[in-house]
Amino acid sequence: MMTEVIVKKAERAALVVGAAGGIGSATVVALAERYQQVIAVSRQPRPPAALADLANLCWLTAAAEEGAIAEAARAVADHCESLPLARVVLATGTLHGDGYRPEKSLRELDAATLGHLYQVNAVLPLLWLAALEPLLRRSDGATVAVLSARVGSIADNRLGGWYGYRASKAALNMLLRSAAVELGRRAPQVALLAFHPGTTDTALSKPFQARVPEGRLFSPASVAIALLERMDAAQADGELHFVDYAGESIPW
Ligand SMILES: NC(=O)c1ccc[n+]([C@@H]2O[C@H](COP(=O)([O-])OP(=O)(O)OC[C@H]3O[C@@H](n4cnc5c(N)ncnc54)[C@H](OP(=O)(O)O)[C@@H]3O)[C@@H](O)[C@H]2O)c1
Questions:
Q1: Tens digit of pLDDT for each residue in 64-73?
Q2: Which of 26, 100, 171, 189 is 20 to 30 A from 239, comparing alpha carbons?
Q3: What is the per-residue pLDDT across 110-125, written as a single tens digit (0 to 9) for each?
Q4: Where are the chain's structural domains?
Q5: Known Gene3D superfamilies for this protein (predicted)?
Q6: Which of 39, 61, 92 for mutating ligand 1's site (highest number of atoms within 8 Å of CB)?
Q7: Ligand 1 first shell, C-beta below 6 A
């Protein structure tokens, strides 16, 4: 005899920004099983095929610039009038793209690329956090996770290289640390995480997967579950917690 297990969804909403990305879309799927509504924000006009059948998904399209972010945050707030926001995942980021890849030496540094990496990896998530702050302040308890990376740890940098990506993630962590202090005063019920997913099988890591040791390349689905577990365990204590998929703290 088959036993059907019915999991009651929390009467809360969750938000994912960067919802068309590898980790972002897997996180949407995982959240959709647990929360009554998932609001997904992306630059893409439509959800990827894997998300198309989710009945409790609300897809918002927003360009990656200040005005569009503010407008999208207002739309999120409208959606959350009836369902309080409990989880926010900012899953955007870039490592390589048209005409740029991680630098191996000082000779490869390029000012425009450095600026682009700072803009996407550090500035954009902070613009989102700032735009969502009024909504977070009104929440009755929420956890925000921002996708960072272990290579943004200054203490952990023994290999060098990857100047722009490392520096932009270190900048992200510093910006988040300041935000944690402020939220601790203005929205003490909000927990904040800088999350390192581990090397995950997405477009971002694709060119760099060859040397990943056996068993250390994670599926986006498993990372999404780990992320939600870390978020469930997060304390709202005015601190920024820089943690990996296993819940281990990462040194600054
Ligand atoms: N994969 C890994 O091994 C790994 C390891 C450590 C840390 N991370 C971090 O995890 C996060 C998610 O990465 P992922 O692996 O899921 O990568 P991904 O599949 O490439 O997704 C990244 C998403 O970020 C958004 N994005 C990319 N370029 C952008 C730009 N120029 N402007 C605005 N948004 C942009 C896009 O979201 P939309 O298309 O929805 O707009 C994109 O789908 C990133 O912050 C990354 O640094 C990943």
A1: 999 999 999 9
A2: 26
A3: 999 999 999 999 999 9
A4: 10-244
A5: NAD(P)-binding Rossmann-like Domain
A6: 92
A7: 18-24, 42-44, 64, 91-94, 120, 124, 147, 149, 196-197, 199-200, 202-205
Written as six digits, the tokens of 77 are 């707030």
| 80 — pLDDT class (breaks 50, 70, 90) | confident
pLDDT at 241: 97
